[in-house]
Amino acid sequence: MLDGRWRAKAERALDPVGKLLYRVGISANVLTIAGLVIAAATAVAIGSGHLVLGFVGVVLTGVPDLLDGSVARYSGKAGPRGAFFDSVSDRVADALLFGGVAWYVADESEYLPVLALAVLALSMLITYERARAESLGFSARGGLMERAERMVFLSIGLLFDILVPVLWIMLALTAITAVHRFVMVWRQATRAAAGADRGVSASAPGVPPLSPTPDARVTDDRRRPRSRRLSRVPGRR
């Protein structure tokens, strides 16, 4: 929800900063790598129990992700390669952050790291659902728990030291998002399949059926061989 409604506004607000970074000579890939480095440092901070520092790190992790798009546009090098690198880097950053969370909550219970990893697994699932749907020509955007919402919830959990309750909430909302996207794509695929079946097996009302192909073994009356009649003249056939 936040990604669809507020991301464009945030990027427009930070657009002058992106233009300045481009003029300085900082590329979009450098920003993406900087985000990965910050995410790794944040994971270490969270795992070692420095939650407020982890909160600051999570906020800083999102800044390069908002700026790299505008820098790429000003440089004129925006394209599939940069988009692919950015998407993969986001997944790696998520894995690092939730790995740090799993490391931290392991001190409370040996089972709690499974909770953090379950949130991470469902997060990867909803990301895969969107990517796979778009590769098939469908849409799987939206949901209650996209990446922006995950970062907001994680920041709240770190700031107020309520990671375990927040993780349970994230698990439920991420599962709902995964089911929502599955149903969304399933319905689109069902409609597409129904439309394809109607186009192949039946003609639209008022449209004559397709003519048979040249190799079809259907002949009309004009092509049927005439039967040989017996001559009425005696002695002749």
List the helices and strands and how they pair.
Blueprint (H helix, E strand, L loop, with lengths): L1 H12 L1 H10 L3 H20 L3 H25 L4 H26 L6 H24 L11 H13 L3 H39 L36
What does this structure look like?
By secondary structure, the chain is an all-alpha fold. The chain has a single domain (8-192), classed as CDP-alcohol phosphotransferase transmembrane (TM) domain (Four Helix Bundle (Hemerythrin (Met), subunit A)), CATH 1.20.120.1760. The chain has eight helices and no strands. The longest helix is centred in the last third of the chain and has 39 residues, at 163-201. The radius of gyration is 30 Å and the shape is flat. The model is unreliable at 201-237 (pLDDT under 50).
Fill in the keyword field for this structure.
disordered C terminus, Four Helix Bundle (Hemerythrin (Met), subunit A), mainly alpha, 237 residues
Quick summary:
The protein is mainly alpha-helical. 71% of the residues lie in helices and 0% in strands.
- The H-and-E topology, N to C, reads as HHHHHHHH
Strand content: under 5%
CATH H-tier superfamily: CDP-alcohol phosphotransferase transmembrane (TM) domain
Low-confidence stretches: 201-237
The percentage helix is over 70%
Largest sheet: none
Tertiary shape: flat
Gyration radius, rounded: 30 Å
**Count of DSSP strands:** 0
Q: Tell me the number of structural domains.
A: 1
